[in-house]
Each structure stands twice: as C-alpha cells, then as structure tokens.
What we know:
Elements: H1 9-29, H2 33-49, H3 55-67, H4 77-86, E1 90-93, E2 104-106, E3 111-114, H5 124-137, H6 146-164, H7 167-179, H8 185-192, H9 196-211, E4 216-221, E5 226-231, H10 255-258, E6 269-275, E7 278-289, E8 292-301, E9 316-318, H11 332-338, H12 350-353, H13 366-376
Helix pairs in contact: 2-6, 3-6, 4-5, 5-6, 7-9, 8-9
Amino acid sequence: MRVSRTLPLEALEALVGLHEELARRANASIATPEEARRANTELRLWMRERDNYLPDIEDAAERMSRAAGYTSGALTHRAVARMAEQLGFQLLHVGDLPHSTRTVTDLASGRIYLPPASIPGGHGLRSLALQAIAHRVLTHERPASYADFLRQRMEINYFAAACLIPRGRAVEVLQNAKRERDLAIEDFRDAFGVTHEAAAMRFTNLATAHLGIPVHFMRVGDDGTLYRGYENDAVGFATDPTGAIEGQIVCRQWTSRMAFTVRDRATEFHQYTDTPAGTFWCTAQTGATTSGEFSITVGVPYVHSKWFRGRDTTRHTVSRCPDPTCCRQPPGDLTSRWADQSWPSARLHAQVLAPLPGGTFPGVDDAEVYTFLERHAPTT
C-alpha cells in the first residue's frame, strides 16, 4: 500500500493495529517445532563449549546457600525458605496450582506458590522453589523468543542444582574420591540427598572444570529413546538433520540400554563399550515413572575409567552404530520369514500430534494462572 497525504487516518490506525496484532500472535506462538529443536541444539552446543560449567551462576548459588546457613550435607527446606526470604518472598504450599504450572510467583505480593508439602517425593520441592527463586536472582526478563525461554529454563535448573549441591563442598567430595580412585555417582547422590539424575547432571557441571575429566550424560527410555543428553568427550550421539539428539534411538549395546537387561538393579550397572569413536566406560542406574522405565548414564573415555568405582567390571560390548547391521537391521533369516507375514499396530506417541506450546511462557494457560493469583491474592 502506498502511503500518501490522502490516506485516511483510520486506514493508518488499522495498519498499525494489524502489525501489533501480528507481533502479538508471533510472540504468543514463539516458535515452530523446527525452531525449538534448533534453539535447543544451539544451547546444548553452547554449553558444551563451556564444559557445562557456568561460573557466574555457581558464584550466585554459593553465595545464596551460605547466606542461608548451609555448611555441608543436604540443603534443608528451611534453608531454601531463608533464601526466598532474602529476596523478599514467602514460600506457600497450595493444592490448587494451575495444571499447566509447576510453581507460580506473585511478584506483587512477594509469594511463591508450590505444590503441597505432603506429595510423594516431596524432596523435589526444594528444587522447584529454587528454580522459582532463580528467576529473581538471575534478573530474568520475560522471554522474547523460544531460545530465551530455553536459556532461562537451563539457567534456573543450573542454579537449583548448584544450590542443592554447592560447588565448594561438592568439589571437595569429588576430589577426595578421585584421589582414592573411588568416584561413584551413587555416593555423590547420597552425600547431598538428591536424586540419582540430579547428582549425575551435577557431576557433568564439575567433572571437566574441576577434575579434568571429559564426560557424557544420558537419560534414556526403556524403548531406547534419548530424552536428554550432554557430551564433551566425543562419544558420538546420533543426530537428526537439524543436529538435535533428543528423540534419537540409542544403540542396544550401549550401557544405557544394557542396564535394562540385568535382574539386580539396586546398584549401579557398569560396562565398557567399544564404539567407532573409541572405548568408553559407563555407569548407569535405572528408575521408573508412570510413563515407563528409564536409565541415567554417566560415561567417560577409557583412559579416565581409572578414577571410578566399577572400573574392574568384566562387562564389555561392541557397538558398530550407526552401521545398521549393528542393532537396527533384523537378521536376514528373520526378515525372510516375517517381512511379508507381519502387520504390527504401532503405538502413536502423544508428542507426535501435540502442538508446540504457545504463550509468553510456553505451555502455560494464562487465564488459569491469573484466576489462581486473584483467588489467592492477600486481602488489603
């Protein structure tokens, strides 16, 4: 449209309104699935360049936890409450949080709403509270893109982990274990009263920067799907054309999948695996949720296995992936017998048809959140 003096003011106002509405809708949807995967891949590579270690957040977490009275062992719920109080917030447990949220922060009233304290696995409430606190400590603004949203999500998770397992004490524990050649994720987990996954992820933050050990981490479903991963040891994760690793199928010979085949799962499972990228020693622990079983794996190149408990394992497999004859392609005799005589009904994963969550905070139902805040707002 050519803008001239004769163009009515109403038309100009309509054009401006149109552009504002287009911008609002773009911000609401934030990203396409392709953009989300690209942003997630870029963030993973950015963290790999830094060995999964962020000193500024480490410093902030150390400062906050010490000010709250932390000295050693597990961070208490009371210490977390003190950290909130340092920022002018009160932690409140409620039973009617919006279904699309894990926590809700009322900036006007200085309240952070959490799930009920009596829920199973309530130790996770410390992490939820710390993540909500982290937005304030790290001075986050409302995310302007899906990449911003992912970066903030990573930072609050990092802050929470660095508070639950403070760097000073954690490095001391790990260095002592390394001197004894007795590093073990299960000991690290128990020393700070966190989940195995939290301890494994926290180990990746500190292993390279403070122990000089390159490392990889995986959370893998019992169907072999990689849900979360990190590496700076060149282990060679499978990727899709965008470079994303999430959703890829892990080789059946890798420790993360072999761990499902053993009967005794009470302790960590150890294994060496020969791959095209070299030999790796890995330790895995299995667990289960309502959606199925999963394994948590931490691995290192063979030369660094000497620092870990379980290095004397005799379990040793060979992985030729991505060669399809390794574990993807069925044996020829089975193919001949069943290729034309089978018709399976595939299970459709819900995420295949689910739309990418929209909104300023993706996946959050704004109407539900605002109604919740109004219902719980303190009376004046």
